Amino acid sequence: MRLTIAVGTFILAIGFGSASVKATVLYQSIPDLSASRLGTFCSNCPGLADQQSVGQIFSFGVSATATSLSFVVSNDYVWPTPVTVDIYQDAVGTVGANVYRQTFTSYVSDTPTANFTDVVSVSLGSGVTLGPGSYIVFLTNSTTGLAIATFDGLPGNAIYNYASTFPDLTGNPYASLTEQDIGVLFSGVSAVPEASTWAMLLLGFAGIAFMAYRRKLKPALTYHLI
Prior knowledge:
The protein has helices at 2-21, 195-217; strands spanning 24-28, 37-43, 52-60, 64-74, 83-90, 95-104, 108-109, 117-130, 133-140, 146-152, 158-161, 175-176, 180-181, 184-190. It is of the alpha+beta class. A six-stranded antiparallel beta sheet has the order 6-5-9-3-11-12, with no helix packed on it. A five-stranded antiparallel beta sheet has the order 1-14-4-8-7. It has a three-stranded antiparallel beta sheet with strand order 2-10-13, with no helix packed on it.
């Protein structure tokens, strides 16, 4: 009996462990790079006050920790360049509180495509933990601007901040780039176990419950003094 309970406990430990370490795609709006590019939207370009701080609205259905971010850039612009990644709460029409900020000079880039686009990935280190809700990720460069490739007719919800004073965007209004997508992908760890993990957890609980039930039914030993 003790062995069975130990096995059940071991299964539970494996289940909980796999639920917390397996990386997955948390949010994706990166289009097929073979799609036609609509153009380039410059983030924080000098002299272009209405094209500052290009971003994308995204949402998490459950609590999750994002450990990496990929985004689509235009490589017909001066590149590489430092990239500041800002994540804000979405206050519906205005930029909410800042929850993450980091400037990157090191990243991973794939091979450019014929459409002058490139996917760039940055590591978010130990990760950014976000609860369920809507957020905005802004990609900017404080001095020279960052060229973001935009795509037409795709389901993304790209935006730009037209009244920003970089780097503080909190409380500023934003405008929507209707039916356009700048393309972002968050990878990390979700708080919700996958189906295989749930099966493992249920198996462990069932084993422990069964042994407890058998123990309850087992008749108690009676000792008689001679």
